[in-house]
Amino acid sequence: MTTKASADRKVLVGLTHGKDEPENLLIAYLMGVEALRAGKEAMMGLTKDGIEIAAEGFASQVELPGALSITDLHEEYVDAGGRFLVCPVCVARRGPLDTERRSQRPRLCTNTQRGAH
C-alpha cells in the first residue's frame, strides 16, 4: 500500500518529443531537476520521439536560444539520480538505442531492465 507521504516523494514526467520540440525538452528537464532539488525521486517516461534523450550525447545536440542549457540540465538530472523509463515498443518502432549507448547510460531503464539505475 502506498501512503500519501511516499507518493508525494515521487515525480513522473512524461515526454513524447525530441529535437522537434526543444521547449518541451526544456520543460521536462526543469520539472525533473526541480523535483530532485526538492528531495524527491524523479523519472522521465519517454515515449515516441522522446526516447531520443536516453541516447548518450543527445542533450548536447539541442539548443534553445534564450533558455537554460539543456546539456547542463541533463547532467544535473542524471548526476542527482534522475532516471529514464524508455518505452520498449517505441524503441522497437524507431530502432534500438545501440548497446554502446546503453552501457554508457546506467540510469536508463526499460521494461526489461526494471530497477537498473
Walk me through what this model shows.
The protein is of the alpha/beta class. It has one domain (4-113): DsrEFH-like (Hypothetical Protein Ychn, Chain: A), CATH 3.40.1260.10. It has helices at residues 4-7, 22-37, 70-79, 88-94, 99-103, and strands spanning 10-15, 41-46, 83-86, 108-110. Strands 1-2-3-4 form a 4-stranded parallel sheet. Helix 2 packs parallel to helix 3 (70-79). The longest helix is centred in the first third of the chain and has 16 residues, at 22-37. The radius of gyration is 14 Å and the shape is globular.
What number of domains?
1
Structural class: alpha/beta
The CATH superfamily is: DsrEFH-like
Low-confidence stretches: 99-117
CATH class, named Alpha Beta
Cα gyration radius (Å): 14 Å
Q: Count of helices?
A: 5
What spatial form do the alpha-carbon principal axes imply? globular
Fraction of helical residues:
25-40%
- As a percent range, the share of strand residues is 15-25%
Q: Please name the CATH topology.
A: Hypothetical Protein Ychn, Chain: A
- The CATH architecture comes to 3-Layer(aba) Sandwich
For the secondary structure, the number of strands is 4
**Sequence of secondary-structure elements:** HEHEHEHHE
- Record the strand order, biggest sheet: 1-2-3-4
Relevant terms:
alpha/beta, about 120 residues, Hypothetical Protein Ychn, Chain: A, single chain, disordered C terminus
Could you give a quick summary of the protein structure above?
With 117 residues, the protein is α/β, with parallel strands linked by helices.
